[in-house]
Structures are given as C-alpha cells and as structure tokens.
Amino acid sequence: MDLNQKRTRTVDRVDSVDPDLVSPESTPMCPFPDEVLEPVLSLINSHKDRSSVSLVCKDWYNAERWSRRHVFIGNCYSVSPEIVVGRFPKIRSVTLKGKPRFSDFNLVPEDWGADVYPWLSVLAKAYPFLEELRLKRMAVSDESLEFLAMNFPEFKALSLLSCDGFSTDGLKAIATHCRNLAELDIQENGIDDLGGDWLSCFPETLTTLQVLNFASLNSEVSFSDLEKLVTRCKSLRVLKVNRTINLDQLQKLLLRAPQLTELGTGTFTQDLVTRPVADLEATFGSCKNLLTISGLWDTNSLYLPVIYPACASLTFLNLSCAALRSFELAMLLIHCKSLRRLWVLDTVGDMGLEAVGSWCPLLEELRVFPADPFEQENVAGVTESGFVAVSRGCPKLHYVLYFCHQMTNAAVATVVQNCPGFTHFRLCIMNLGQPDYVTNEPMDEAFGAVVRTCPNLQRLAVSGLLTDLTFEYIGKYAKNLEILSVAFAGSSDLGLKYVLGGCPRLRKLEIRDCPFGNAALLSGLTKYESMRSLWMSACNLTMNGCRVLAKEMPRLNVEVMKDEDSEDSQAHKVYIYRTVAGPRRDAPPFVLTL
Amino acid sequence: MSVSIKEHDYIGLSEANMEKQAYEMIYNNKDLNLKATELRLGLPGSESPEREVVVHGGAIKIMMAGAKRGFSDAINGGSRKWAYAGDGGQEVGSVKHSGQETDVSVSPVPALPERKTQVSAKPNRQISSPAPKQQVVGWPPIRSFRKNTMAVSQTKNEEEGDQKMGSGCLYVKVSMDGAPYLRKVDLEIYSCYLDLSSALEKMFSCFTIGQYGSHGVRTREGLSESRLMDLLHGSEYVLTYEDKDGDWMLVGDVPWDMFIASCKRMRIMKSSDAIGLAPRAMEKCRNRTEADNE
Q: Which positions 253-272 of B are in contact with A (Cβ < 8 Å)?
C-alpha cells in the first residue's frame, strides 16, 4: 500500500476495494477479531482518519464501514446515494455539500442542481433511523423537508446553511412531526419567509431541543410560544433569535434559560426604556455559561454595555450585524479577555482594531466585514494599519478574513511575521486590481510573504493587483495549501500553471476573471483527480479545451455552464470535479457535461 | 504614466461614454423622487420622461451587456489589454506595472477565438469613478444575507439624520425663532447636554437653555412631568429637537446617547410657544409604553 497514494484519497471517493490490497494472508495478518476492532474503530470520528483506516486491508475496510456512523460528502455529485448506502450500512448522520462556493455570490444560475430530494429518498430506505442531516449549498424544497419530517422517526438534528428553495412551510413540517428534535439550525438561506407561525408548530410535548437558530428569518414569531418552548426545553444550550425579538423579550428568555452557552440576540436597542437597563445587565450577569454572543442588531453605546458582565468567559463574539464605532468596540473588548474569535464590521475602523490588539491577546480568528461594500466614495473602513495593529497584539492569530480598500506589501509582510501560524488567510482588497497604494507595485510580495512565512497555510484568498509572480510563489511555497480563491489576478497561463504544478495538497481551486486559458487548464490534467473540484469562470477557456480535458480524464465531470451572451466556442463557466457517479443525470439544459 | 486607449465595444460607445450614461442612469434613478418635488425654472413637463427612460434603457442595456462580458466593462477608467502566453509559456507584453499597453494577438491554441477580453487594472491609486460604479456580479464576495442585514442597518442610520457611517460627525441644523439664519452643529463633538448648551449659547448669544441636571451620565429614570415644567418656566427660550419619528421633543429628557442617535434637527423656541410641547411629549411616551407592554 503506497502511503503517498493514500494521501490523495479522501472519503469523497467511495471506491470499491483495490484488489491489490487483499493479500492471501490478510486474515492472519490482522490479529484483531471484529468484535474488538469495531468498537475500537467506532471511537474514530475524523473522516480523514477513517478513510486511512479503510485502506489498510480488507478486514479493516469492512470493520470501518460497519462502525461508521457519520458520513461527510463534500460534493454531492462526486458519489451517488446508492453507492454510499451500499458501502455504509449503519449511518446515523449525513453531511452533504452541493453547489460550488461561488454560488454564494450569484455566479451559479438558479436551478443548477444539488437537489437533496434524490438523496432523501434513498436514505429513507437505507437509514430509517437517521438522526442528523447537515446540508450546505443544497437545493431544498418544502417537499423535501416534509419528506424528511415524515420518514425518519428518530430524526434529531437539522442544519441548513446557505441552502435555498424552501419556505417556512417546510419548517412547519419539521417542527410538527419531528418528535425528538434536538437541533434546528437555519443559517443564511435563500428562504421564502411566509411568516413566523412555524415556531408555534412545535408540540407542547417537545422538550428535547438543544439548539434553535432562526436568526436569519425575518418574520415575527409568537413570543409566548417561544417563551414556553424555551422554558420546557431544559437542555437548550444554543438560542439564536431573529431581529424581531426585542430587549424585553430577550430578557425574559434569558431568565428562562440561564444555562445557554450560545446566544444570538434580537434587536439590541429600544426607543423607550420600559425597565431599567440595570436589570438587563444583571440578567446577563446571571448567564454564567455563555461562550458565544451574536446578533446585537442596532446596538449603541447605551445598550451594548449590558453584556459586559457576560464577557469575561466569551470565546466568540460576532458583531457583524452591529455597526459599532471604534470606541464602542474598545470599551467592550476591555471586558473580553478570553476572546478567541471576533467578527466585526469595518465601522470600527483602524482604531477599533488597535483595541483588538490591545485587549485580546488570545485571539485566534478575526473577520472584518465591510459595512458598505459597494460604496466607492467616502470610504471609511479599515486599512493596513488596523491589520498590523491586530497582528502585533494577537500572536496566536491564525484565521483572518479581511475586507479593506487599501493594503501594502510591507504591512502584510509584517502581519505574517508577527503571526506565522496562519492557517487561513483571506484578504479581500475590494477595489479591483488595486496595487500597493504606497509603492504602486503589485501585491505579489504580500502573498509571497504569506506563503513563505506560514508553513501551515491551508486556505488562501488573494486580491489586489497581482501578476504571475504571486502564483509562482504560491506554487513553490504553499505546501499545505488546500483551498485557493483567485479573482481578477494573474497575467498569463503561467499563473495557473505554477499553482497546478505545485501545491501538492490542493483540494479546491476557484478562479474567476483571470487570463488563464486552455494550456493552463490542461497542464493540471493529472492533478484534478486528487482535488475535490475546480471552478473557472470568465477566464479564457474554450469548449475545445474543455473537451480535451474531458476526453483525457474520464473520471472527471467537466461541466460547462452556457451563457446566452457568450459565443458558442467559449466556456464561460467551467466546473470540474472528480466523481465515481458518472455524469450528472439531473443536469439542467444550460449545464453541458463534456 | 499611462496612456489609456479608449475601448470601444460593439455598439461603438466608448467606455467614458458608458460611464457617463451609467452615472446618469443611477443618478436619475436615485433622484427620481426628488425630481418631482424639485423647484425648477422650466415649464412643467418640459422634460419628457420618455427620453429619460430611453437613456435608462440604453444605459441599462449597455451595462447588462457589459456585466455579462465579465470584468471588462465593469471597471471604470483605463482598460488594458492582456497578452496571453502562447505555447512557449512566455510572458509577452503588458504587465500592469510596466505602465505600457501592448496589444499582442492571441496565438492560436486550439480554436482560441479572437476574443478581446480585457482585464482592467489600475496602475494608479484611485478608481476614477464619478458615481456609484457599475457593479461586478459577485464582487466584493459578500454573501447576500449579509448585504441585506447591513443594508437595513444602513437605512436605519440614514433615517437618523445627517449621519455618515464611520465618518465621525453628526451635523444637525439649529434654528432659533427670530434669528435671520440657521446654524449647524456637530453633535458628535459634545459628550453631554451641558457642552451642547454652552456651545449653542455661544452661537446664539442672547439665548438660554436652562439646566438639565446630571445628563452627562446614563440615567435610568423615566420622564418626569415636573422636571419638564421647571425647564419651561425657568427661561425665555427652550431647546427642542425633531426626532426620527418627526415629533418635536424637549431636549434633555433622554440620555445623551439616545438623544444624538435620534435627533434630526433642533429648534430654539420661545418658551411661550413651547407650552403645548411637554404634554404632547409625555403623551407620546405613555402611548409607546402601553404599546410595548401589550
């Protein structure tokens, strides 16, 4: 068994066993009887580890497949549901991801696919006792949700992230029929919000809820029903309400559920104080277990301080819905000495980020979102100096997502010197093709510094004015890079060739609006089977180039999305992924599989 | 440093022209409501709405075509032509920072068409867009749920007067009965009512606000009728403000932060005119309280 080969396989490839693995002496070589092996293996939860285990020998492969309870499918088209249920007979939890990530930014047309229903119908027969379903970027209809609610009597946990196609009617079905529901986590979906009465569908007998997240829904729910639900679910640990819940209501909920570990508030201000602010502050003080606070819509200097008593133990503070100013953030962070993760809007400015550097020495993750991403004039926001300030004060920082309008190579180099442990470095200079604003040079050296200095880098998103040199650096130095996002960058085919020629652990590559053509695409022929997927849109690919790739690599699906405007020979949007399921059978007319 | 060649698309319009049309379209759209109420010198109906629509249509059409092309037309200012490497993998021609534009024809890798794809890059710092720039689909890469959240909070802020997000100033008009002109003050630079009061006093020298008590710190009490009455009877003038609901309120009742968040403009009234103000303000608050408690 070639260990190098093992590395390129993940659980996404649900292959039949390679006959070379099965040696005649396999039984005596494997000293553990199944009764011992299976319980041991059942303790292994990481899907990467399980994948490794399954490749040891036939006995271990079998033991692994019988002991696996959770399956993770990173690309729903890489495998068919039949193959999955055929291999794993005893699954209780499924995670499925569908559309390419750029669908979040409207680059994937509607009705592209990733419908969960075909999966559900197969899962219902094979895993009638399925307990958990986590979906990301899947198309989910109300019918699917109803089917789910009616066909899985033991169903406990539903998580929908960035999905679309359903309405609150689907949620009604879940609430009504899932008697053992412990988790309902609805995040950031394209949902048709028809009203808040779905919440009232939870039966009075339901007491098992542990996680309830409806922060992204807009409609008002019945507060009295919510309050009763929270009261009777004594194990509730995560509660994230939507903006329609006001402060008084929030206080009542907190009094009912002081055991919460994660709280998402509703609107965090009111026009008229109906009860003293001190009361609210005391309530927050009584929530001793809070680790996460989010929501905080509309908050201001008057109300934000009520959370101070709960801040000392917070590890994650999500302020991305609260347009705080720098001093408001500073005053808050003084109390947040245990903070590991912080999400803010760029209204806090560089001064706010200096406060982060001063008060949060344990910080590991920082995300700065733009409050007004499309504003060009009168741009405030954060700059390179805020970035540097955080890096100085937070040496443990390893995850950053930073939206800004200007950056310098020197600043980025300083940041990574201060924090060489970066695993995720996502820098978005919002002005397209923006060079280093001090030297006017491209931002090549910035990302060169990142890949040279950060050996653990797994994920990188580049932006600004970039030539092929950036990609030369990436290909040469980013040995652990798994995910790369590129937009409006590069000078020629060389750029892509560098990346495809290096980066041995690359799994996901997404590219838009770059001058990479067929030659570059074809230079990565042998690499694509070791990757989950490649997305290229508005580059210089042609149908012929894609056809060549498709012909050479039959185990890849090479899909081209046709655009009415583009010429017939152009391949405007290309999505390439490895699969054992063959070409899609549900492709809409605008998706051509070559 | 650079010479920008005007790029003409198939309709024959140059990029600058498109910018202008896009600008017009957005400008016209934005101000559509205001135009109706705008005071003009021309005869009513002298500007034919159809023509605007045509411009809109034309501009929209151009923009749509541009957007679908990808990045080319979406970037304002100069456009650059990319040179694409041939089989030799040699980098020929224009790299942005060289400041030159080279137009190299694409070498025929299998059936590569003669498509003129531009990646615009800006060697100079500023994006010279006169107006909200044409947006590139999916850029910046912000998920739509996040855009919606922030759009709503933006609107809320805008409703609260001349407030700009993050710009650190909050100018509101101050008028005084009998004064020939108005003044503007930046509420952000004051930290309490006392500061504001003294500043206004200096501005309108024959003017008194009266006392407001300890409003520099967060107060927790509700309104008190008696306190209002004291203020009104204590001086010749009273300071009032219009809040974001359009109601005229007495300055000094609410904590400072709440005041600056809701104040749209101020008016220094003669106290004789303000007699009716206090009861109305109390009424409003009472109604609100009732509504909240359901």
A: 255, 257-258, 261-262
